[in-house]
Amino acid sequence: MDLLNILNGYIWSMPQIVLLLGTGLLFTLAMKCTQIRMIPTMIKLLFSGKKSEHGLSSFQAFTLAIAGRVGVGNIAGVATAVCMGGPGSIFWMWVIAIIGSITTFVECSLSQLHKKVINGEYRGGWMYYIGDRFKFLGAFTAVLFAITMPFTQSSLHSNNIAVAVSNAFGTPKLAVGIAIAVILAAVIFGGAKRIGRVAELVVPVMAVGYIGVALVIIFAHITEVPDAFAAIVKGAFGKDQMIGAAMGSAMIWGTKRALFSSETGLTTATPSAASAEVSHPAKQGLVQTFSIYIDTLFVCTATGLMLVVSGCYNVQDGSGNMLYMGLGEAIEAGPVWVARAMETVMPWGSQFIAIAIFFFGFTSIMNHNYSTVSAVMYFFQKKNFPKWAEYLVHMCFIGGVIFGATMSLDASWALGDVLLGSATWINYIFLLASAGVAIKLLKDFEEQKRQGLDPVFDPDKFEGVRGFDFDMSIWRTIRDKYKSGDLKN
Question: Do residues 115 and 475 touch, judged by C-beta distance below 8 A?
Fold first, then answer.
């Protein structure tokens, strides 16, 4: 833990905040605030795509990405941010969501552009768009991803599920882990199509249900809402003297947990973005941009406001000293805080949070499994992906969730922060270098829209253009299918 904390101190530091916010601001200016001005287009594209023999529909890819984004970070992660950074950390979550969402457009558009057909399915992600330029680095990122997902992120989700279910129903954590593993196996061994179908059915219901209950809690404390927003804004800039949380702490923890929750630039949503069948890479980039708003501006805000309006939170400094103790006792930041907030209005808060954590965490694990399979497939682009390799990934996840259910919560957060923080540095630096490609894709998309056309990506228009110099045969096939009327979306 000491080593992990030292590494996290270097990885998650003010230089990274500058990198993340600076990159988002640069993309925002270069693309003329696309993440806001094109919201109507995002919503329209969300429901317009169709499935194909090779991939998922835009909506399925969207819900699969949401499955990854809306996870325990929306509950436990928000509580951790408020604990270490005060209510002001919620403000910085909003900033990351709005400014950082354009980074999602870039990475998801690139994922679409560089996707491959492997074993008859579209596969892609950050390791593919990096690997098309730098093969060794692509291989390194694929290995990093394959280690991170089953052994830290999915273990973290299963840990939070086990803690929540154990607290609410008294079920042993090991039994919870085994139950998660059994249900997970039933889904993931059905392949990509089954994963997409489950995401399409479950994710909208779980997100709407959680937000609906959160609104009940917030409205029950309606008189506290103005003070809550004041505390969030004051705390964001270090002005809350009662709590005394420094601006830097609020920024760092708000950024860490916003990134973990929304996965903005965190690479984890890129494989699902590549899975969709669309006629232009920018389409899926825009759809995935909208998913950031669902995750952070709606779900994370719902959690944060429940904590602040009810006063059910503590704040501590970096040494563990309590600066504010709204809960009346020292309780580890996590689902228990949110359950306490709900129980100020509803007696069954612990049970509801346990169920919410289960669905949030399980769908995230499901998404991470899909993404990890895509990462391992990176090494089999020239030949068929063997079933034993796919089953090995599945077994790593099944073992990881059982192990994670009983491991230390602090260790799971710390190790996940180190590995994903490292991936974030690599990804953001590459995205900065590839900004010109994303800008060209967006301009091509908007130019066709202005002409009244349904945009279709024509690789021949970009022949010899820097950043487009890789095998475009997939896009020529999609273009020809679209023009012949076989593909309309």
Answer: no
- CA-to-CA distance for 93 and 20, rounded, in angstroms? 12
| Residue 121 DSSP SS3 | strand
Model pTM above 0.70 = yes
Q: How many residues does the chain have?
A: 489
> DSSP letter at 315?
E
- DSSP code per residue over 3-55: HHHHHHHHHSSHHHHHHHHHHHHHHHHHTTSHHHHTHHHHHHHHTT----SSS
DSSP letters of 317-373?
-TTS-EEEETTSS---SSHHHHHHHHHTT-TTHHHHHHHHHHHHHHHHHHHHHHHHH
Listed residue (189, 191, 200) closest to 58, CA to CA: 200
| Structure-block tokens of residue 161 | 């599920």
Q: Distance (Å, rounded) from C-alpha 207 to C-alpha 210?
A: 5
Cα–Cα distance for residue pair 350/359, rounded to 1 Å = 14
| DSSP calls for 408-426 | -HHHHHHHHHHHHHHHHHH
Q: Give the helix ranges, DSSP H, for 189-224.
A: 191-220
DSSP for residue 278: -
Handedness of CA 461, 464, 465, 468 (dihedral sign): positive
Report long-range pairs for 166-169 (Cβ below 8 Å, ≥24 apart). 167/335, 167/336, 167/339, 167/350, 167/354, 168/339, 168/350, 168/351, 168/353, 168/354, 169/351, 169/354
SS3 category, 314: strand
Q: Count other Cβ atoms within 10 Å, centred on residue 327.
A: 18
Q: What are phi and psi of 123, to 5 degrees?
A: -135, 145
- For residue 70, give the nearest of 212, 195, 202 by alpha carbon: 202
Structure confidence at residue 245 (pLDDT): 46
Q: Tokens for 371, please give them.
A: 């993404």
Q: How far is CA 97 from the centre of its chain?
A: 11
Name the strand (E) or helix (H) holding 290: helix 281-292
Q: Are strands 121-123 and 314-316 parallel, antiparallel or unpaired?
A: unpaired
E strand or H helix that includes residue 183? helix 173-188
Q: Where are the beta strands (DSSP E) in 25-120?
A: 116-118
Tokens of 206: 């779980």
10-residue mean pLDDT profile of the chain (489 residues): values are 84 80 92 93 78 66 73 79 84 85 93 92 93 93 88 83 86 93 92 81 86 93 92 78 52 67 75 88 91 85 92 80 80 84 89 89 89 93 87 93 80 76 89 94 96 93 89 91 66
Q: Which amino acid belongs to residue 58?
A: S
Quote the DSSP letter at residue 464. Answer: T
Q: Give CA–CA dist 194/414, Å, rounded.
A: 32
How far, in Å, CA of 7 to CA of 410, rounded? 14
